[in-house]
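RECORD TYPE: protein structure
NAME: RING-type E3 ubiquitin transferase
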Amino acid sequence: MGNFGSTGRRRNSTRRSHPQAPQLHFHANRFVYAAATPYPPSQYPNAPPYSQYPGYHHHVPPMVQAPAPPYVEHQKAVTIRNDVNLKKETLRMEPDEDNPGKYLVAFTFDATVAGSITIIFFAKEGEDCCLTPVKESLYPPITIHFQNGLAQKFKQSSGTGIDFSMFEEGELSKDSDMDVYPLAIKAEASSDNQSENLDSGSTNSQTTHAMFVKDNKGEYQVRVVKQILWVNGTRYELHEIYGIGNSVEGEVDTNDPGKECVICLSEPRDTTVLPCRHMCMCSECAKVLRFQTNRCPICRQPVERLLEIKVSNETDE
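PREDICTED:
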């Protein structure tokens, strides 16, 4: 009995049981993969559940398509022959020594052909760059002929100047509603068939629109508003290009450190950013830039167009 009982107990004690799962022990140098942060619901609304437990790879969210790179139009400049050019930085008013209280228009201009200059006070621009004086009875237009030549000096004839005391200050500035310019200077180039061109209104010309402003001393100075070219029946508005002087050999601009492209620092500048008008890149860098960003490298303003300008200091014989 004792043996039987002891044998039965031994059989019961040796009853089979399921093996226990081995315990996982993680050491300090083991690699553990887990999602560090939840998916932002607003960014990935359809993201599947993730796991933060050791031994599981978190689900990689689907790739979000990046926005298309900005595209900027790249154009090449067209050369237009300008036979007469008024240097607007030289435009000024000088006192009439023979008529105290009156002031005369003076400036420097270049001309490759002969032509004429017309001075109009209080002019309104119409179609085909035609100028109409609105105070003709007080100040009739004055036309003076010239020959071809560079750096010619022009000064209005004595007795034909303007008396600023006759007008209020507001009249001497541009009236945007009426498009009346206190001063307009039209330089026209002569041609072999000048009479035909005059009848058709298609003469090549440059028109400078300006207004009068007071300086700190209370004296009136000339401020150029815009310059217009009329060439072969097409109207062009002139704009300054910043940095174009350094693109020509021998020219030095104290406001610009060099003539090289600001991106590659090796090729000469030949591309202008519009509308800010910074000539700061070579054409190759501009081609790359227009697919990567729409900001000017100089002022960071938005870029609408890139204009390639080949500048040469050679003059036509």
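COMMENT: Residues 84-238 form one domain.
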